[in-house]
Amino acid sequence: MNGSMTVAVDLGLALLAMLPEHLLLTGAVLLLGLDIAGKGARLALSVAIAFVAAGAIAAVVMGAQGISGEVFPGLLAVSPSVLLAKGVLLGLAVPVLLMSRDDFEGGEFPALVLLSLCGISLLLSAESLLISFLGLELMSIPVYALIVLGYRRPESAEASLKYLVLGGTATAMFLMGVALLFDATGSMAFDTFAAALASPDLVSRAAVVLILLAFFIKAAIVPFHAWAPDAYETASLAVTAYMATIIKGGVLLAIARIIGPAPITSPMVELLVLFPLVSIVWGNLTAMRQGSFRRMIAYSSIAHAGYLFYAMLGDGAGRFAAMVFYVLVYGVVNVLAFAALPAAHEDRDRGQLEQLQGLYHRQPFAALVIGVAMLSLAGLPPFPGFVAKFLIFKNVLAAGYGTYAVLGLVGSYVGIYFYLRVIQLMFMSRPAQAHGADFTIHPNPRPPLTTSGFAHSAAVLCLMATLLLAVMPGWVLDHL
Question: What does the alpha-carbon distance between residue 143 and residue 163 come to, in Å, rounded to a whole number?
Answer without folding.
Answer: 9
